[in-house]
Amino acid sequence: MAPAFEDGEARQSRPQTPKYDYLQRQIDSGSPARPTSFSLNHTLPVPGEKEHNAIEVPASRSSFAETQKLMHSLSMEPSAKERRSSRNSFGAALPIPRSKRQSRLSSVSMAPARPGMPPIQPTREILSSQMQDMRGEKTSAAKDMAFAFDIDGVLVHGDRLIPEGKRVLEILNGDNELGIKIPHIFLTNGSGKPETARCDQLSKILHSPISTEQFIQSHTPMSALAEYYGTVLVVGGENYQCRDVARNYGFKDIIVPNDIVAADRTISPLKEFFTPEQRATSNPRDFSKVKIDAILVFSDSRDYATDLQIIMDLLQSEDGVLGTRAKDPVSQRIPIYFSQGDLLCPTEYPQPRMSQGTFRIALEAIYKSITGVELERVVYGKPELATYKYADEVMASWMDTIHNEERLPKNIYMIGDNPQSDIVGGNMYGWNTCLVRTGVYQGEGNDKENPASFGVFVNVLEAVKAAVKKELGEDFKFQWSDELNPVTGNFGDASVSAIE
Asked: Does residue 316 surpass a pLDDT of 60?
């Protein structure tokens, strides 16, 4: 039986305030999530008590580092089956956006208006609509299933297309016997670029339109933190695009490490180069007069030595002011958030490369060595419960966009390449999980510690076909044909068995 978030235990140790009652209703609704147990024996400062437009989802991983356990990438027991005995499953809360996402569709184009005439509709759209009306039972089943795709190692390797990924999106976007769009979203621990830029990039690689409304990066739910913190240090990302990401999320005062280096080169003695371009894009100031409220690691560090040094300085500072040292750095420590916990990620290189999790492990080990205590931190991304709760919101919104029905499909399939994030998270959240061998996982058979509930597949196309056949029938055809439509009447063996 797949491990699940357990009922009831998430209500034990917290006063029942109106705000928390609302949060609990949010956790109890949606797809078949199972809240797990938690305790609040943590020291992270809790943001102000004022009402926020965010849902605070209890963390499903311990907020305490565990360096003595060799810092497993998820900071939990290696096996989900052994995780029930975790000493602190919920050590903090992860805010996620509460409000309905605003439409930023990149996949919808409008035909020019014709005064006094109805809008032009593509012929295929008319035919597929008629086919769906006549085959109501199968159409309903198609709307009641959905996919959540990891990206790197499933659909692409870096900027290189995995060929089966292109065909999968063609099928789900309507190249099937019903001509119907089968709901799907993209749920990735990738990061470092604004969502719009990443969707545009993926649309070109995959030759299919991808909307920001169906797309979640590891740091996308972290947009809710903009309501809690004024001045933040944002770490990671190529060319510090994460400054733009944070600005898009609504953060008001954004600092990146290069701003601090530009103000004082001596802060990072191991930094050999600071180019004119880096200096030109930096915003130096007198940081002895700046109080940094939180540290947000949005993406992979491009300069471990500098970023680790600056973060360590801030974690030991007096209220987040660089150049100071707190009398009790543990109790006065400012909060630090990581957008995901993966150790490895697939790229264009033949073997997986180190990811953000290795940076976090380095920081945790350094912090423990210097202070003698474990670093308390918060980690977003798969397999975190908050990420899946946010995926519910996105999935329901996308259903409204493509089918005018704002609801969650009953049968959701998570397709990923990493058992320790994609599979364990999907299993705990009650989704069907599919493990593919085109990325991190290269083992024989199913993963022994975190087995995929629906099976292991050679590639994403085989996984999608198996899931669709299970929900829509073994005879379902993965290609649209005019011979199957009700207008031309040439149905052959695929004739409508019943008109409803």
From this structure: yes
Q: Give the pLDDT of residue 127.
A: 54
Token readout for 9 is: 């235990």
Q: Is the pLDDT of residue 81 over 70?
A: no
Q: 100, 148, 76: which is closest to 429 by C-alpha? A: 148
Q: Tell me the pLDDT tens digit for each residue of 368-390.
A: 999 999 999 999 999 988 999 99
Is the predicted pLDDT of residue 333 greater than 50, yes or no?
A: yes
pTM (predicted TM-score): 0.74
- Mean pLDDT, rounded, of the chain: 79
Helices 356-371 and 304-315: crossing angle in degrees, nearest 10, is 50
CA contacts within 13 A on the Cβ side of 399 = 21
Higher pLDDT, 355 or 26: 355
d(CA 277, CA 379): 32
